[in-house]
């Protein structure tokens, strides 16, 4: 799906953007963060690229590492999903 989905004045930012910021703030590599979270490098890469959703387990791992609440991570994903659905519905409507 991608990190940023945009249509007309609607924009959806994947929560992977915030994971990338977390990596920059902690001066870790993707591999180091993956190891600390107990997930694969591929999962981190897909998350940052916007191709991996944040599920309950990943949100818990991110919360434990970052101090940002589990609910915040889940809310970021939910807001992204809602906005993508809104964009897709608008595109579909506009194409008729």
Automatic annotation (TrEMBL):
A GO term for molecular function: DNA binding
Keywords: DNA-binding
UniProt cross-references to CDD domains, sorted A to Z: HTH_XRE
Keyword Transmembrane helix: no
SMART domains (alphabetical): HTH_XRE
Domain HTH cro/C1-type: 19-73
Signal sequence extent: none
Transmembrane stretches, start-end: none
Keyword Ligase annotated: no
A Pfam family matched in the record: HTH_3
UniProt name for this protein: DNA-binding protein
Species this chain originates from: Fructobacillus ficulneus
């Amino acid at each position: 799906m991608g990190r940023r989905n945009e249509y007309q004045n609607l924009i959806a930012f994947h929560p992977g953007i915030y994971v990338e910021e977390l990596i920059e703030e902690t001066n870790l590599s993707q591999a180091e963060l993956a190891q600390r979270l107990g997930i694969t490098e591929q999962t981190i890469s897909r998350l940052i690229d916007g191709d991996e959703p944040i599920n309950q387990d990943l949100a818990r791992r991110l919360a434990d590492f970052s101090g940002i609440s589990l609910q915040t991570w889940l809310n970021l994903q939910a807001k992204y999903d809602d906005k993508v659905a809104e964009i897709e519905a608008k595109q579909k409507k506009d194409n008729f």
